[in-house]
Design goal:
heterodimer, A: 518 residues, alpha/beta, FAD/NAD(P)-binding domain, eight-stranded mixed sheet, five-stranded parallel sheet, 15 helices, 18% strand, B: 402 residues, alpha+beta, Gyrase A, domain 2, Alpha-Beta Plaits, Elongation Factor Tu (Ef-tu), domain 3, six-stranded mixed sheet, six-stranded antiparallel barrel, 9 helices
């Protein structure tokens, strides 16, 4: 490219960094602008109490794109896992815990039929999830625009589904759009097992177990190379983005932190660069935004620079977060009732049954935090001693559900949810709350403020059929290019979505390289 | 009736009466009405031919109240309109009126209408179709105040060679100096009368705007002072003849509004409606711009043409062929009429590209009925450029009295 102005990437989250690294490796001049003091976006590790550090938003790695890890040599840039393929311990009342390890269940009081059925159930879902996984690194087809390459891309998706075989295809099509409650009721008796699997489906979403689309979100969670088994990154999720930053710098791109983009500037009908909050203007040959689609298009660019129909679709992207994030600094490892201390560092869940989960969602639908929330818990310090002083521990938990705009004030809602969450934890680990030396609870509104996601939804938009594949984030921007010349999206708001994957950033880089040949 | 609307009891009236209804109903000796945008509207009052004759030889009054009207004000009013419509609205200075179309994101025409730049930064947008939903959507991100005031603004079209004389007779001093598409204001009955030199007839003519409370007074003074100038009421049928002679298009007749089209390919772009002059690509953004740039590169699918057709059989909805016999169907008539002023059998037609160039051999396949029996004739068509009837008085300023 002869243009001396760099490609500017707004936001140094993992997708922005992945995109930057690929572009720089292809010889492009790239500048990443990050508003915060450090890169990382929602994949950061930060101190929340003196001496205690935690993954401040995403806390387990499920979906990190294997191609990205390999292409960008993240291991050689310092990415290490403190523990891979964590098991899931479904905490039960009175110490009746189930331990799920991929397709098998260890321990617990479980009807024999459930134990037997689980392997087949898991294998089926995994098979379906692989269909989604195959799409991760493909550009979603533009179905309305026609053209042979678009038709072939659409046909590939159809073929992937057809290649499942006749009966599995029918089953896939039957369940893909429905809710996890119904398919779990068909398959199992154990409330504890059903609650645990349903939590996987609704975690981080604005869905209850009975909400349609909750099978799709479960499949998405299982669609990566790890088949849904989470891993613990050493040093927290910030290590992922620190490694990415090294890859970016090694590839020759520049990164500026503390640089808040206030707006995208235009020259006629083309993007000319960005203007920072301080008024500094930076010229760019292209602008790629890792910010969520609503922020990018409605705030940084402005609806007036878009056409009415497109702006209308962007306004109606569903992106209201429903998950809160809890961080506890503990002066000792909590003792969960009858849980082998060796399992305390696995992924722990509290979702005793489907009704518990649905009731937790009901409250949030009407603007209240759940009276008894469901939790996904990680105590990373069991495996990773870099995060807390010796003998101390950190507990990180996703707390479902907390509305983005609670009826009470956000402060009152936060205080109430913290009290109730500690009470739930005490029920499974008596005395846990007495070990708490510091706590932090981020509601969706807090998450919006800290991480700059409109609506506090950490996938930059609900992952649902209406916002999936060529509909993500909206038709007209689903192939990473926006309608504005020179403005691209590369974040989780695009296909294939969120969960610290890096795939959207990589796909966006490929689109840019294909569109702007030197 | 208006009181009922304010009390949200509009459901008590399936169809509204315009504020002129007391006069229009008394004059409608034929008692022929239809429903236009939920208002009772006269098809014709006494004789369509004579009403048409008044438009071209004296002057005629048309009740324009049902036309959908919006008021747009606020700091971003101009920016909002410039993003909405395809033409450059900065060129419509205060006191001027501009014809415009607006498109969806695909560059397909949603509607056409007129922008009245009433006073600096204060705009009225008149549309053929209800547009509040699209305008409200389009308003997002703009600091404007948008109100639909159809039911508050009474309007009459006063069209024809003696219209200026009538205006002067009712007290609009200097009305003759209004240029086409200019707006003037005169005090009226303790309020204001706005007069714009605009219309749908392609003749010398004006549109008169006031509030509902002054509507009857306006009608009465026009017919009182206008009688010596041959003033007549006119219904929609007479206006339709004048419209086609002027070559003006109408939503749902010459094009299907894009937001109402279900089948792909049934809507039209401004280029396909012969309105390229209304598209200004120098504006960096407006609805449809990207698609229209693309269309300019790729070529349009259709074009709208004016046809002068041999004979006197009106070509209602006729297919157009490229040969007299065994030809291909290359177009369809959208509007057609015998033109009394041009003394010609005229039509507007939507042609598939590339047909419709001046000089193309084209044949209309016309079906017509005589004494309950259908006949068919193939009539040669000639593509005409410019209006079918375009009298110099339409533009002459100062306007003459006749």
């Amino acid at each position: 490219m002869t243009d001396m102005n760099p490609i500017v990437i707004i936001g140094g989250g993992h997708n922005g960094l992945v995109c930057a690294a690929y572009l720089a490796k292809a010889g492009r001049k790239v500048l990443v602008l990050e508003a915060a003091a450090n890169v990382g976006g929602a994949a950061i590790t930060r101190e929340f109490s003196p001496g205690f550090r935690v993954s401040a938003c995403a806390h387990l790695s499920y979906l990190l794109d294997a191609d990205v890890t390999r292409d960008l040599s993240l291991a050689s840039h310092g990415l290490k896992f403190a523990r891979e393929s964590l098991r899931t311990v479904a905490l039960g009342a009175n110490g009746n815990h189930l331990v799920l390890n991929g397709g098998t269940i260890e321990g617990g009081n479980l009807p024999a039929a459930d134990r037997a059925a689980y392997a087949g159930f898991h294998a089926n879902l995994r098979k379906f999830a692989r269909v989604l996984g195959k799409q991760h690194n493909r550009r979603p087809p533009r179905i309305a625009a026609g053209g042979n390459s678009e038709l072939i891309a659409a046909a590939k998706l159809g073929l992937d589904i057809r290649m499942l075989g006749r009966d599995p295809m029918r089953e896939f099509l039957r369940i893909a759009g429905i809710n996890v409650f119904d398919i779990l009721e068909e398959a199992f008796e154990s409330q504890q097992l059903k609650g645990t699997l349903a939590l996987d489906a609704v975690l981080g979403t604005n869905l209850g177990p009975r909400s349609n689309n909750s099978v799709l979100t479960l499949l998405h969670r299982m669609s990566g190379a790890s088949a849904g088994l989470p891993s613990l990154v050493e040093g927290g999720m910030g290590s992922v983005t620190q490694a990415l930053q090294k890859a970016v710098l090694a590839a020759g791109a520049s990164v500026r932190t503390g640089a808040t983009v206030a707006r995208v500037t235009l020259d006629g009908d083309r993007v000319s660069g960005v203007e920072l909050a301080g008024g500094e203007k930076i010229a760019a040959s292209l602008v790629i935004s890792n910010a969520d689609p609503k922020s990018t298009l409605l705030t940084l660019l402005g609806a007036r620079h878009l056409e009415t129909g497109f702006a209308h679709r962007v306004r109606h992207i569903r992106a209201k977060g429903m998950a809160a994030k809890l961080h506890l600094a503990l002066d000792g490892l909590p003792a969960f009732t009858q849980l082998d201390a060796a399992l305390a560092g696995e992924r722990l869940t509290i979702a005793p049954d489907l009704t518990y989960l649905e009731h937790a969602f009901d409250a949030a639908k009407y603007g209240d935090c759940s009276p008894a929330p469901a939790l996904e818990i990680s105590i990373p310090t069991v495996h990773d001693r870099t995060l807390a002083p010796s003998g101390k521990h950190v507990l990180s938990a996703i707390v479902q559900y907390a509305p983005f705009d609670p009826r009470a004030s956000n402060d009152a809602a936060r205080a109430g949810l913290l009290t109730r969450t500690l009470a739930v934890l005490d029920g499974y680990a008596p005395g846990l709350s007495q070990k708490v030396v510091a706590s932090e609870l981020l509601l969706p509104a807090d998450i919006e403020r800290e991480f700059r996601f409109t609506g506090g939804h950490w996938h930059h938009g609900e992952l649902s059929f209406d916002q999936f594949l060529m509909l993500r984030p909206v038709p007209g921007a689903a192939q990473y290019a926006t309608p504005v010349n020179g403005l691209y999206l590369c974040g989780a708001g695009c296909h294939p979505g969120g969960g610290v994957m890096g795939s959207a950033g990589a796909n966006a880089a490929r689109e840019v390289l294909a569109a702007v040949k030197s | 009736m208006i009181e009922n609307m304010k009390k949200k009891e509009h459901y008590r009236h399936a169809v509204y009466h315009s504020p002129f209804h007391a006069r229009t109903s008394a004059l409608n000796t034929l008692n022929e009405w239809h429903r236009w945008k939920d208002y009772t509207t006269a098809d014709a009052y006494f004789d369509t031919s004579l009403e048409y004759a008044a438009i071209r030889n004296a002057c005629a009054v048309f009740d324009l109240t049902p036309m959908t009207k919006h008021r747009i004000t606020g700091p971003d009013a101009l920016a909002f309109l410039n993003r909405l419509v395809t033409r450059d609205v900065t060129k419509i200075k205060a006191g001027k009126v501009g014809y415009c179309v607006w498109c969806d994101d695909n560059g397909q025409v949603i509607d056409d209408g007129t922008i009245f730049h009433l006073r600096e930064g204060d705009y009225r947008l008149c549309s053929q179709e209800r547009q509040l939903d699209w305008l409200s959507r389009s308003a997002y991100g703009f600091d404007i105040n948008l109100v639909e005031d159809t039911h508050e603004v009474a309007a009459l079209a006063l069209q024809g060679p003696t219209s200026c004389a009538v205006l002067k007779a009712i007290g609009c001093k200097g009305a003759e100096n209004l240029k086409p598409f200019e707006i003037g204001y005169w005090p009226f009955e303790g309020g204001e009368l706005m007069v714009s030199r605009t219309g749908f007839t392609g003749d010398l003519g004006y549109e008169l705007w006031t509030d509902f409370s002054r509507a009857l007074a306006l009608w009465d003074v026009l017919f009182d002072k206008g009688s010596i100038h041959g003033i007549r009421p006119m219904g929609t049928h007479a206006l339709e003849i004048a419209r086609i002679e002027a070559g003006f298009i109408q939503a749902h007749v010459d094009f299907l509004p894009a937001d109402q089209a279900i089948r792909l390919g049934r809507s039209r772009s401004p280029f396909e409606l012969d309105l390229a002059r209304l598209v200004d690509f120098k504006k960096p953004n407006f609805n449809g711009r990207r698609a229209l740039l693309e269309e300019q590169k790729r070529g349009s699918r259709y074009r709208l043409v004016k046809l002068d057709i041999e004979g006197n059989k009106v070509a209602h909805a006729a297919y157009i062929y490229d040969r007299k016999d065994n030809g291909n169907q290359v177009g369809t008539v959208t509007s057609s009429e015998w033109s009394p002023s041009a003394k010609a059998n005229i039509a507007l037609a939507s042609m598939q590209m590339p047909w419709g160039r001046p000089g193309d051999e084209l044949w209309a396949d016309i079906y017509y009925q005589r004494e309950h029996e259908w006949s068919r004739v193939k009539a040669r068509c000639r593509v005409v450029e410019g209006a079918f009837f375009d009298p110099p008085r339409r533009r002459a300023t100062p306007a003459a009295d006749f």
